[in-house]
Amino acid sequence: MRVKICGITNPEDARAALTAGADLIGLVFVPASRRYVTLARAKTILADPTIGPSAVGLFQDDALENVVETVNELGLETVQLHGHEPLDYLESLAKRLPKCRWIKAMMIRGPEDIEAIEAYAKPSCFRSRMTAVLLDGPGGGMGTAFDWREVADYLRPRRLHLPPIFLAGGLTPENVVEAIGILNPDGVDVSSGVEASPGCKEVEKMKIFINLSKGWNRRQAEL
Q1: Is the pLDDT of residue 220 over 70?
Q2: Which residues lie below 8 Å from residue 150, measured CB to CB, with a gap of 6+?
Q3: What CA–CA distance (Å, rounded) separates 212 from 12?
Q4: Residue 128 is inside which H or E element, if any?
Q5: Band (141; pLDDT cuts 50, 70, 90)
């Protein structure tokens, strides 16, 4: 089980998340977000060389050139696309950034939205370097959950030929175990669920969330 702590806005929270056991941290390059970080701010977070390999740059329907410039400027290794980016845009980015890994987020309201994941099962430059398809709730990045059971029923017979699945949207230390048990994702992503205020993480909540998420693997092995 991989854990991503998204919406990191300062070096202290980044280090605390990774020390607590997070696999990835997310930097949001979406100006409308309350967790938006400027290029200068991102550089202060990534000044610690131990943070860089775990950092994910999050973009939403941004100009291709802006994504390329930001990724190259910061030396990001993983990029999350959180909008309605078409497949030709994704392929162009993959060719322009040949060393990057990719996470494609999708907003889920019901099984009908899940069908779009099938496009990422087909062989392509982008598909070959995908870390995951991230399933987020309605609105995308709004901390809203979707119906896990409904989506799990749809995914179950299709998982073998799909990319890894990350779960996001409304996750908290209180519900993450239930969510994992229902959907059985390859990873979980949390932002507002471990915050004291927007963009300010609460260390104890991060620790609990990460321990519960990763503890799922241990519990399953014991059964």
Answers
A1: no
A2: 110, 111
A3: 22
A4: none
A5: low
Render pLDDT for 50-109 as a digit per residue (tens, 0 to 9).
999 999 999 999 999 999 999 999 999 999 999 999 999 999 999 999 999 999 999 998
Q: Would you say the pTM of this structure is higher than 0.90?
A: yes
4: enclosing H helix or E strand: strand 2-5
CATH code of the domain in which 94 resides: 3.20.20.70
pLDDT in tens, 100-138: 999 999 999 877 788 888 889 888 999 999 999 999 987
Containing domain of residue 181, as a range?
A: 2-222
Distance (Å, whole) CA 164 – CA 186: 6
Q: What is the token pair recorded at 162? A: 């799909």
In this structure, what are the phi and psi dihedrals at residue 59, rounded to the nearest 5 degrees?
-125, 155
Which one of 13, 62, 136, 189 is the catalytic residue?
136
d(CA 52, CA 65): 21
Quick check: is 153 catalytic? Answer: no
State how many domains the chain has. Answer: 1
Which residue out of 6, 62, 100, 189 is catalytically annotated? 6
Q: Is 147 a catalytic residue?
A: no
Residue 219 structure tokens: 């519990």
Q: Which residues of 184-211 are buried (b: 16+ CB within 10 A; e: fewer)?
A: bbebbbbbbbbbeeebebbeebbbbbbe
